[in-house]
Structures are given as C-alpha cells and as structure tokens.
Fold this protein.
Amino acid sequence: MKPFLSVTEQVNRLRDNGLALREDESVVAEHFLRDHNYYRVSGSFRYFQVNPPAGLNQFRSESSFEKIRTAYEFDRRLAQRLQSGLAEFEIVFRSQLAYLMARSAGPTSYLDEQTYDDKNGARDRLLQDIRNESRRSNERFVQHHSTLGEPMPIWAAVEVMSFGTTSKMYGLVKDAEGVFKPLAARFGISHRASRRIFRAMTVLRNVCAHHGRISNRNHRISLEAPRELQQQPDKTIYKDTPWAWVLTLGHLVDNVRANHDYSESLWDFLEAEPEWLCKGLIYPSEM
C-alpha cells in the first residue's frame, strides 16, 4: 500500500515527475488537490504523461497544472450534459418496459420466473434483486401494497428499482415480439445490440452519478455505436470507447425527443473545446 502524502508532498511528487510549477501555482495546486483528491485528479494527468499504461508517468514538457485543471473541468461539464440525457432516457426506458411487460403478461408478471430466461442463475438473482429493492423502499405506495398484502403492479415497481435491475429485466425477458423488440425499436436501435447498449447506459449512469472520469479511459464495457453513426473510416473509434458512449446516448435521447436537439447540443459543446481534450474521448490513452 502506498503511504499517505500531505498535499505539499503530493505537489512535490508532481514536480518530481517533471511538472513545472511556480510558487503561486503550487499554492493553487495544493488547494485544488485538497478539495478534489489527488487520486481522482490523477486521471487527468494521463493527458500529459509520457506513457501511463507502460508506467512512464513523467510529464511532457508542454504540461502545466492549469491544463490538468482544464481536463478535469472538461470531464465534469461533460458528465453534467450526459447525466441530463441519461435522465430523459431512463424515464422513458422504465415507462416503456413497464407498459410492454404488463401488456404482454399482466401487471405482476415481472415477479414470475416464467417471464425470464434463466442464464446461469441470472433469473434467480434478478428476482431476488427485485424483492430486495422493493423491501428497502420507504415510498408510501410500496407500504400501501404491502399493507394490503398484494404485489405492486409493474408500473409502480419500476419506480423503486434501480436502472441496473430494470435493464437486467429487459435482458432476460422471454417475450421477444411483445417486449424485447418493441422496446429496442422505441430507441431506434437493433434488438440484437440492445442488451449491450442498455447495459452500457447503466454503467455510464453510475460513472456520472459517482463523479467518475469519463474521458481518456477504457471502461471495459462492450459497446459499439449504432452503425448509421459510424461515418469515419477508422471504425475502432466507435467500439468500446468513451466516444461510443457519447454517440450512442445522443442517438437514444434524439429518439426520445423525436428531434436532434440533444445530440446537436453535445456536438456544440465538444466543438468549443480544445482538440486535445476531445481526442481523449476518441483515442483514450488508457486502453
């Protein structure tokens, strides 16, 4: 385990790795690191280090602490924009899933094991998660149904389930024609890719909610942006990259709104940023 370092020692570590800091910049750096956690901010170092995946953490000559802060703030502002889109997408996803499943097999069919495929025990784990999340809720409507001794209909239950649980419900549901395919079609995506896409959105939501770093890293999530969005010759940028996340979410929210306002707002935001920052979405250094 690495030893504790005071913020002064943390700044000295940056100097030891080749980051030029004037005295006034050192004061700013100490204040920033105290408030934002060296470990968290270190993700933004990657833009400026020689070869972090190979352990070469020396800063290149053009590096500065101001640029590190710029990268950090870029990721924060990007996350805010993505969270806004994810909120719109998630509400529609929950609502559509509840409607389609209730229409397919009834209001409480989500509690029946016959509703889902069983893949290596995933069905049993899902049903347990559904029960646990309902029990943990303090919502009055949950207590109302509990007092009556009756299960909640799915349109109520989805309001207390995590996004992760609802995406797992979709991934395991048996009714392809009544639920699986129509829900994918609602968001303008192939049903063959829909499980991966919806799962990737749950991960992105969690990263944003916990203020994790989005850009310039590989999140180890399998995701390919919809084919119709892949306009550049280099197709690698559309698979398993932060750029695939951004493009795909833009496509999902555009389908929710039935216009291109959301994706265009993302492009406007990115076009106003320095090219080296946007490159971290397309060609992340941590691959």
Summary: The chain is about 60% helix and 0% strand. Residues 65-105 form the longest helix (41 residues). Residues 7-70 form one domain.
